[in-house]
Each structure stands twice: as C-alpha cells, then as structure tokens.
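Readers outside the structure-tokenisation community will struggle with the description of the input data as it stands. What matters is that the chain and its backbone geometry are given together, residue for residue. For illustration, here is how one protein appears when written out as sequence plus structure tokens:

…
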Amino acid sequence: MRNGAVIGIVGAWAALVFGSGATAGERPAGTPNFVVIFADDLGYGDIGPYGATKQRTPHLDRMAAEGMKLTSFYAAPVCSVSRAQLLTGCYGPRVSVTGVYFPACPHGLHPAEKTIAERLRPLGYATACVGKWHLGDQPEFLPTKRGFDRYFGIPYSNDMQRPSAETGRPVVPLLRDDAVEELLTDERQGTLVERMTEEALRFIRDSRERPFFLYMPHTAVHTPIFPGEKFRGTSGNGRFGDWVQELDWSVGRILDTLCDLGLERDTLVVFTSDNGPWTVKGPDGGSAGPLRGAKGSTWEGGVRVPTLAWWPGHVQPGTACDAVAGTIDLMPTFVGLAGGSVPAEPAIDGRDVTPLLGGQACQSPREAHYYFLGESLQAVRQGRWKLALVPQGDGTQQRPAPRLYDLESDVGERTDVSADHPEIVTRLQALAAAMAAELCGRQAPGRRPSATVDAPRLLYPGGARKRKPDGEPRGTKPEPAAS
C-alpha cells in the first residue's frame, strides 16, 4: 500500500477518535495544536522518567505521569540529519542530508522537500521555529523560507563560533526571522533557554485562537554547556545537570501556559532529543543509561532517545509504549491529525502513529526501522530483533557482522544471538539489502538531492570561513564519533 493510502486510512480513523480535521481560518472541534520540544544531545538516561537521579526533572516527570513514555523511539546519530528526518518524515539519505552543516556551508535541505510547517500552514496553522535550525544557514535555507511564519534562534550548533569583525571574539548569530539580531558571546549564550522560552510562550499566546505548530529545537544540552544564571550550581551533576534542569523548567513553562490558556486538551506536546549523549565530552556529555554507545554511533545509545507525548484527554496518563517509532513518524502523524494527507509521491519513510498514542495499537506501523550513519546503512530492527550489519564504532572488539541482538532481553546489545536464529538473520538481511539498494549511494533510485548555493557567506561580517587542513572548505561531515 502506498504512503498516501496508508496515511489517509489512519487519518480517517484519527478523525473518528480525536475529532474532525482543520480548514484554513478556523479551529474545528478536535483540531490539535502541535508542540515539539527537541533537546540537543540529551541521552536516554538524562531525565527522571528514564532513570536520571543526579538532576531533577519534575516537569518532565509530570509529562510522563500525565502522558505516555515511548521507550523505543529513534532519531539519528547526528544533528542536521535528525532535524531533516523530523521535519520531512524521511531518512537522511533519502533527502541527501547525511552529515553536519557548518557555518557558510553551500548545502541545505532542498526546497522541494516539504517540512511539517509547509504541510500544516495550508491547513490554517500558525507556525514558528524557536531554537537551533541546522539545516543550512544561507538565506535560502532558513526557517522562514521553509513554512515557518516566525523564527528566533541560532542557525547551527552553539559550538560553531566564528570571530566577530568588530571585536574578534568568537560569536554565534542569533536570528529573528532572517536577520541577525545579536552576535552571542559565550556569556550571552547562557541567556538563550530563557529567551527562547519567552519567545515560544509569546507565539502560543498570539496564536491561541487558531491551530498552531511550535517547533522548539533547543541548544541545550549540546556542548559547550551554558546553563542560565538562575540554574548554575542547582543540580548534583555539575553544569550539565544544571542545564538539564533549566531545560526541564522551560518545558514546565510551556505546559503551564497551555493549561492557563485552556489549550491543554487541544495540544499534543512531544518532547524528544536529536541523538544520544556526547559522552566523549566527559561530565559535560550526559548518559545513555542502560544503552550501549552514544552520539555518532548506531548503537541504541546513539539513536534511541527519551521521548514523551502529552495530550490530556487523548493520550492516557501514566502509559508507556515500546513499539518502534521515531522522529520520521511525526510529520505524517501531525498532518493526519490536522485533517490533511501526505501524497504518495515523493516517498516518505514515516508513518502515522496516532493509534500508538491513543492506545489503540501496540505494534509499529512500519515494517522495520533502519539505522543510517552518513551514507551507510549499519543496522535494521524489526520488533525485538536488531541486526547489526557492520562494526558500530564504540572502540571495543566486535564480532564480524552480521550480529543479532534481542533488544527485549538485551537492551545493552552485549550478546550476539545470530547463530541461534539464522532464519531471523536471513529475513533482516533481505530487508536491509532492499533498503540499501533504494537509498545507499549517490545514484540510488530512492535518493533525492540536497540544495546548493554558489558563493556561500557567513550571515554576519566576521572571520574567514574555516577550512580543512587540506584546504577544502568545511561543508557537511559527520560529527566526531561519540562512543
């Protein structure tokens, strides 16, 4: 069954369960708002609902108590890829986003790829992006060109400072829409969570009479660590824990504002992370909890992320779901709940997971989940079984591929059981071969191009664009391995 048919059927079911769809200029009963709070480098073991004890996360604890904890929810190993996957519903290689975009990079997400905002805005939604964009910093690639009515944030990671022409000090540009509002020094980066939170609340208040989509990709807790002044020294886990607690405070402000405005039953809030913890940063790097690996790898710790869904009256409180889902499923889910549909072409990889959120299903709507790192398909999961196709890069000796893990009994991926289940290995190898033939390689038939601009420039007057040792400009490349 093609994408559009699948999404159309699930969307019709959702309309019966959750209410009718939206049309431009009004809010029919049941048409939800959507808020995505997207943490940066937050590990599976870094918040209370997933076992953290060194930092307190009462507002995320509340989200879990009043909503659903998703325990097999997947992102991507690195920043730009995760953002492309969330916004388009596609694996990174399908849309040719396979590495990390640096300042003044010539590449960005292709304008033909429709983001969640571009699909919701025709359905009457107000849209805003508040936070770290990281899908191209050239004017053609910024959020206001990708379906967002408003943008406030930084265009790439907070560690990608460049020198200011005026002072020579390293800075990161803070943008409002498509103009630089401020050049942030390290000292000023400590104000970002608070300022972004106030910007998000302003958008919610301004948009409360119509359906809205707020995408809030935080800079926290990506290194360097910059907790706000009010939070420094408040945790039992150094400045990393302090910043997690500030992130939690921001979540609480959003939930409280939705409740104060009487919007809680009209708003689906999803909290998740872009990848696992950057553990090579030591005490600034977070924890993957019981999972093996970290950011930059396709071990579970690199891509399985803490995820909560909150929608009072719709998502049952205190529930958990271990069905395989991920950021690629958010776009079709939101569009379906909004009363829209996603065309069958061009292909997307995500599926509508409304039945999972509503407790009407406990199985993933996708046949399998695929783990990509850059151009490489490294593993595939179906149900409880994960087949590793290549060494996965945690610095330890690994048996030759393929390696089969039973994630229900061995979430830490310690025991290879491939010899005991050859039929499962064969089945997963066939799935992986079909997906690799479709997406792996620059000329793969299922792959679509990224966009490129000539003569890219920094968004503000400043120092020269950094260059690799061999003299080639830094474009897209994987971040350093984090395991």
User: Anything to note?
Assistant: The longest strand covers residues 33-39.
